[in-house]
Amino acid sequence: MAYQEQWAEELSLLKSILDKADLEVVKKWGIDTYTCNGKNIVGFLGFKHHFALWFYNGVFLKDKYKVLVSADGEKTKAMRQWRMKSMDEIDEKKILSYVNEAIKNSKEGIELKPEKFAPVPVPQLLADRLKKDKELKAAFSKLSPGKQKEYNIYVDEAKQEATKLKRIDKIAPMILEGIGLNDKYK
Question: Which of 17, 31, 123, 147 could form a disulfide with 143 if both were Cys (CB 3.0 to 4.6 A apart)?
Answer without folding.
Answer: 147
